[in-house]
Automatic annotation (TrEMBL), chains A, B:
Zn(2+) binds at residues 55, 58, 126, 177. GO terms for biological process: galactose metabolic process. This is ADP-glucose phosphorylase. Its cofactor is Zn(2+). Residues 1-10 have a biased composition (Low complexity). Binds 1 zinc ion per subunit. GO terms for molecular function: UDP-glucose:hexose-1-phosphate uridylyltransferase activity; zinc ion binding. SUPFAM superfamilies: HIT-like. Residues 14-189 form the Galactose-1-phosphate uridyl transferase N-terminal domain. The lineage of its organism: Eukaryota, Viridiplantae, Streptophyta, Embryophyta, Tracheophyta. InterPro entries: ADP-glucose_phosphorylase, GalP_UDPtransf1, GalP_Utransf_N, HIT-like_sf. Keywords: Carbohydrate metabolism, Metal-binding, Nucleotidyltransferase, Transferase, Zinc.
Amino acid sequence: MASSSSSDSSAPQTPQIRKDSVKNRWVIFSPARAKRPSDFKSKTPINPNQQQQQCPFCIGHEHECAPEIFRVPPDNPDWKLRVIQNLYPALSRDIPAAEEVNNSDSGRVVVNGFGFHDVVIETPVHSVQLSDLSPREIGEVLVAHTRRIKQLMSSDSIKYVQVFKNHGASAGASMSHSHSQIMALPVVPPAVATRLGSMKEYFDQTGKCSVCESNSKDLLIDVSAHFISIVPFAATFPFEMWIIPLDHSSHFHELDSEKAVELGGLLKLVLRKMSLQLNNPPFNFMVQTSPLGDNASQLPYSHWFLQIVPQLSVVAGFEMGTGCYINPVFPEDAAKVLREVKVS
Amino acid sequence: MASSSSSDSSAPQTPQIRKDSVKNRWVIFSPARAKRPSDFKSKTPINPNQQQQQCPFCIGHEHECAPEIFRVPPDNPDWKLRVIQNLYPALSRDIPAAEEVNNSDSGRVVVNGFGFHDVVIETPVHSVQLSDLSPREIGEVLVAHTRRIKQLMSSDSIKYVQVFKNHGASAGASMSHSHSQIMALPVVPPAVATRLGSMKEYFDQTGKCSVCESNSKDLLIDVSAHFISIVPFAATFPFEMWIIPLDHSSHFHELDSEKAVELGGLLKLVLRKMSLQLNNPPFNFMVQTSPLGDNASQLPYSHWFLQIVPQLSVVAGFEMGTGCYINPVFPEDAAKVLREVKVS
Ligand SMILES: Nc1ncnc2c1ncn2[C@@H]1O[C@H](COP(=O)(O)OP(=O)(O)O[C@H]2O[C@H](CO)[C@@H](O)[C@H](O)[C@H]2O)[C@@H](O)[C@H]1O
Ligand SMILES: Nc1ncnc2c1ncn2[C@@H]1O[C@H](COP(=O)(O)OP(=O)(O)O[C@H]2O[C@H](CO)[C@@H](O)[C@H](O)[C@H]2O)[C@@H](O)[C@H]1O
C-alpha cells in the first residue's frame, strides 16, 4: 500500500471503503476517527481479582451444573475439561425438529426452536484463563469442540454448529470461569449462507479460495508450520484477527489432534499479544466453518478459520441501521503493531 | 397465538425461531433465557446528573464545533436546533466520489471513502433529552433530518442516507448532549439491500407490503391518526419497537411537517414508556428508509419506519458468528407490557 504520509504507517490517510470478499461486507476505514493504533487500549480490562471466587463451573461443583456430555480424561474426578448441557439453553433438544408452524394467513413464518446448546468448561480452576493453558491443553479444548460437532452431526436435522467464546462481561460473558459454547442449529444461519455465497462467487470469478488469498505480508501477524494469524484486509472491528489453516480445508471438525496442539500454540500467542497490547480486553472468538448435512464434503471455495475480536468499540446506530461497520484502525497498522508485540 | 400455559402471557413456552420478513433474518425466541418480561430493566440507566456540564454542542459554544450547515430558526443566535458537520467524519466530503482503487492483482476491492457525516444538535440545552421536547419540537428535529436528506440527494453519488441516534454511553454515544447523526453513503449498504430484497420477495409472493402487514392487535403498542407503534413479530432485540406510517410510503424524507409533529408525539410516547418501564435505558434509533438516486420513486413493496432499540443485552459470539440473534422476550409479551405502561 502506498502512503503519502511521513509517519511509519503503511496505511492511507483518507477514508477507504473496503470489501470483505469472505463475508461480503463493506467496511469503512476512517483515519479521522482513529487514535494512533498503538494507543488502542481496553477501557474495561478483565479484572483478575474478579476471578477469585468459586462457581458452578469449578471442580467439585459438578452437581450445580446441567448434565454432562463428556469429560476429559473420561470417568476421572480430576477432570481437565467438561462438555455439559447449557442450563438455560436458547434452543431445546426435547422438541420435534424444524416443524414449521407457519401461519400462512398471517404471513408469519415460525420454526420450532429445536437444537442443542452446550457449554465447554475449559479448565477446572476458576482463576485460569484460556491463554494461561499450555498449547497442548488449548489443543484439547479445540479437540473437545470437534468431537462434540461430530456427535451433533449424527442428527440429520442439524445444519450448522457454531462454536464461540465470550470472555469478559462487556463481550457478553455471564460466567467468568473460562468456557466456550457450542450451538447446533436446524437452519444454516444468514451470516454463514452469505459467507459461503461470497466465497463461492470469489472462486467462480478468480478460480481461487478467498481465505487462502487473505495471506499477505502486510497483514501477517505470526506463522507456524500449518497455520497463520493475520488481520483481515477488511477487518470489521479494530484489531480483529483470524487464524487460518494453510492447507485448504472446509471443516473445522476435521482438525486432527496433532494440528490442534499447533493451533493451540498460535491461539495462545495471539491471545497473549492481544492482552499485552490492548490491556487485557474482553473478547469473543468464533469458529467460522462450513455447513453440515448434505453439504459436509470438502468444498474448493470454503475454508474454515478462527475469528478473534477484542471488544474495543461499541456497535451503535449506524452499524445497526446499515450493516456497514466503521473501523478506525487500518488492518496494515494493526498487523504491524501485533507483529511487533514482544511476548516473554 | 395459542398458549398452553396458565400465565397471562399469550406467548409460547418452548423456543421458537421466527423469520423477520422485512429484514430476512431468523431470530431465536428463548423462554428459558427470559426473566419475566416485566422484570427487564437497564443495568446502565442514563444518569441525569452526568448532564449538568457544558459541552461544544451547548448554546454559546458554537465556535468549538465543526462548520454549521443550517440552524432553526435561521440566522438566530437563540437557535432551537443546529445541523453541523461532524468534526471526526467517518467519510470525507472532500475526496472524489466512489473512485474504485481496486487492485485486481490482489483481488482487493477498495472504494474511496467519499460521503457526508453530519450531526444534528437537537436542543441548545445540555440537560434536555429528546423525550423532554414537545411533540412539535421533536417534529422539528425530524423535519431537519428530512431537509438535510433532500439537500444530500442533490449529489448523484449518494445512494443512501442513514439517520440514527445514539443515546447513552453503552449505546455508543460519545457525546451526552442530545443529538442525532446523518450519514450519506456512496453505496447502498448491505442491510438495506437485504431489507429491500426481502420486502420485494414478500410482495412478489403475497401481493402485500410486509411492513403494512406487521400491524396486528397482539403486537400493537399505541396508535395515532397516521402512525402506529408496534413490537415487530420477529424483533431482533428485547423490547425493540417500530413506529410505522399507516399510509404506505417508501421514503422518510417525504414526511410533511404536520405529520412530523404527530410522529413526534408518538415517538415521545414510545420513549417515555421505554424509559419508565425499562429504567431509562441507553438506546439507538434508526430511520429505515429506501435508497435514493435512480431508485428514489415510490415502491409498492418498500415502506419506511423508525426502529427504536433499548440497550438491554449484549451482542456476543453467537450473534457475531451466525448473524442470528437470541431474544429472550416474546414480542407479544413486550407489546402487552408497553401497551399498559401508564404515562402521566
Ligand atoms: N450451572 C450451569 N450449568 C450449565 N450451564 C450454565 C450454568 N450456569 C450458567 N450456565 C450457562 O453458561 C453460559 C455461559 O455463557 P456466556 O457467559 O458465554 O454468555 P451467555 O450465554 O450468558 O450470553 C452471552 O452470549 C449470548 C450468545 O452469544 C448472547 O445472546 C448474550 O446476550 C450474551 O450475554 C450461559 O449460556 C448460561 O446459560
Ligand atoms: N465539536 C464537535 N463538532 C462537531 N462534531 C463533533 C464535535 N465533537 C464531537 N463531534 C462528533 O459528534 C458525534 C457524536 O456521536 P455519538 O455520540 O452519537 O457517537 P460516535 O459517532 O462518537 O460513535 C458511536 O457511533 C458510531 C456510529 O454508529 C460507532 O461506530 C461508534 O462505535 C459509536 O461509539 C461523534 O461522531 C463526534 O465525532
